[in-house]
Design brief:
Structural class: mainly alpha
Distance between the termini: 29 Å
Strand content: 5-15%
Mean pLDDT: 77
Helix content: 55-70%
Strand order of the largest sheet: 1-2
Largest sheet: 2 strands, antiparallel
Number of domains: 1
Low-confidence stretches: 1-20, 265-286
Radius of gyration: 22 Å
Number of strands: 4
Length: 286
Amino acid sequence: MSQLIPHISYLISRSFGSAEAGPHIAISPEVIFKIGGIEITNSNLFAWLAGAVIATLLITNAKKIGIKASKGFAQFMEIGTEFVIGLLESALGNRKKAIKYAPIFASIFFFILFNNWFGLLPGVGPSIELNHVPMFRAFTADLNGTAAMALFMIITVQYLAIRESGAKNHVMHYFGGNLKNPISLFVGFLEMFGELTRVISLSLRLFFNVLIGEILISIFTYLGRILSPITTLPFIGMELFVGLVQAYIFTMLGITYLSIATAHEGGTHEDHPPMTPTEALGEIHG
């Protein structure tokens, strides 16, 4: 997949004669300026602005939520938060814990969702340039950004699992509770290595879905010229849906990982040997 997108970009450029004649397609973020030798990319700038806007929206509208039904954006936020609480309750089997962890996972859900949606706004992309480079690029269309979010998710899950059941119990659940068995020991270290692969899978899934949508919109904006609002409308509608789905998948996987990490809780190792993460994942999906 990593080789497919540059190949598509090359074919597009060849089809329209040159890179300048065709749509602007960049796989990696582009540097727009430097501060003290530190490169600031268009995705960095977008992330800071989007983060400030998202935080302002969430904090402002959180104050409007009360016992009575909310209206407008506050209602949307309330529905989204309750949805995340429902996911947590379903995975953890405990409403109290679901409410306890909801602020973390709801924040992740809304941050990804609005970053995906804000990336579709007019002005994001090649329409506004600084130093001959697009000024804004969606943070979730930057592999560095999605990798950082995936790393934050996995570290958060590990921290919550350790706080929930203790460091010793958390480590033991990777080994099935038996450190004397060489096979269990090998499988345990393999499961621990699997935590790193989750960072890769989470980041790549979100990155490619957003990037491909960005490429499609760029192509049909170029092909449509003055009719670009019409030619890109179906793809913008599709990307609004994809942005929501990807925010859900990212959050749901994080919640699933937390459920797996705490699946051994509630019994002794002697009476109920803890399941490994792979076994727990099979229980959840099977």
